[in-house]
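BUG: 3D viewer hangs when loading the predicted structure for this chain

Environment: internal workstation, default settings.
Expected: structure renders.
Actual: progress bar stalls at 90%.

Input used:
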Amino acid sequence: MTQVALLTRIKVQPGKTEAFLAAFQEVFTQAEKEPGTLLYVLNRSTDDPTLFWVTELYASEEALATHRTSEAMDAARTAFPTSSRNRNTLSAHPSPPKAFRPRK
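Structure tokens produced before the viewer hung:
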């Protein structure tokens, strides 16, 4: 099976960032329970507090479909239907290199 990686850029309307973060808390909780969700990370731009990046890695297309159809994702999409999203889907390398942390 081929892993699926997503990198999503989300631009939130000014004044709505705290509500956005609250809505996505349930998404994070759900992602932790999904065995096929290998990585789910939200990053916030240091230059623009309304710009977020979501990095996702799934074990398979089926795992991605399970995540996309979860109640938590439906609720988040309903809460923010007009957020600007740009998504890139990537096929993960079958034998990715080991992750590492930069040394201090």
